[in-house]
């Protein structure tokens, strides 16, 4: 299950986050940069106050890529008793050396390497982090004024990152000015945790204090594991965002239709030799009939987002050449039907550059029986959890 990481500035905010259900309490000073560090004593006191009720993590600060500087700071934070130490790796020729010098510490403390989606991250470094004993890797954003994670790392690129990290035995985290609508788009990739700060501050800036109601709203969008001594708080309607559900939505509430129309992408498609080696414009029109989960939808918990359709099309197109329009339409339909709330889908695929008229195919597919999500199963295979 994906965990919710809440970045807090100290003990007071930690209590708010714990009360609202956050899984990981992350110490950070948002006024001091993307990975701005709080005082070491604040980390120590907060860890003591949390007293094992939640996992804890702390950032080391926006440090220069100098191996000895990095090592000293990581040792300092590790000594506070925090469960995870997060280290930012900014573009530098010294990145490998900064990772390697942490090998002795990684044998005693779980280290998380942080790369930045808006700084052209080098995912070849994942093998370096794994070799040096890191527990996990996460992607964040360095400049919070220049967009969210998905503005810099689109959904089509996320599976390759997640699969590679998992293949190396690394836990995976995603963060970077995430907002509520991003959650159902990211949950299908089954990251080990999603990180939040600004979204926890309500309508205010990420530098303001977190708001209990805002934390609860984010928590409610992430299916929650049962903790010892508590009744299960899993909302199975939300698990549909991960591609599975025990009984589906209530058909008595009827259905709605969501659609994507005239969505045009460059696609490598075609069976003729002249269609290989380049892209051509393809238009997608998709309509999905969706079981309702409430008579009064109010937020992202209650809907299937059209973003999931567009994200899926982008991911399918990114896989490479497709011979037939029919095959492409079938793949899109199968992706949309992975969500158990979808009972029927119509997909139209139209090639726009093969003459004076568009040509293509339109298919309609219905849900046969409950199937586990192929995307979810692929990303859960061999997964290394955050807790170990």
Automatic annotation (TrEMBL):
Annotated metabolic or biological route of this protein: Cofactor biosynthesis; tetrahydrofolate biosynthesis; 2-amino-4-hydroxy-6-hydroxymethyl-7,8-dihydropteridine diphosphate from 7,8-dihydroneopterin triphosphate: step 3/4
Species name: Neomesorhizobium albiziae
SMART domains found in the cross-reference section: FolB
Catalytic activity: 7,8-dihydroneopterin = 6-hydroxymethyl-7,8-dihydropterin + glycolaldehyde; 2 D-glyceraldehyde 3-phosphate = 4-(hydroxymethyl)-2-furancarboxaldehyde phosphate + phosphate + 2 H2O
Biased composition (Basic residues): 376-388
Origin superkingdom: Bacteria
Keyword presence, Signal: no
GO cellular component, one term: cytoplasm
EC number: 4.1.2.25, 4.2.3.153
GO BP annotations listed: folic acid biosynthetic process
Enzyme class, spelled out: lyase
General function of this protein: Catalyzes the formation of 4-(hydroxymethyl)-2-furancarboxaldehyde phosphate (4-HFC-P) from two molecules of glyceraldehyde-3-P (GA-3-P).
Family: Belongs to the DHNA family.
Keywords associated with the record: Folate biosynthesis, Lyase, Schiff base
Any GO molecular function: dihydroneopterin aldolase activity
Endoplasmic reticulum in keyword set: no
One Pfam family here: 4HFCP_synth
Disordered: region residues: 368-388
Cited InterPro entries: 4HFCP_synth, Dihydroneopterin_aldolase, FolB_dom, GTP-CH-I_C/QueF
Dihydroneopterin aldolase/epimerase domain location: 258-365
Listed name of the protein: 4-(hydroxymethyl)-2-furancarboxaldehyde-phosphate synthase
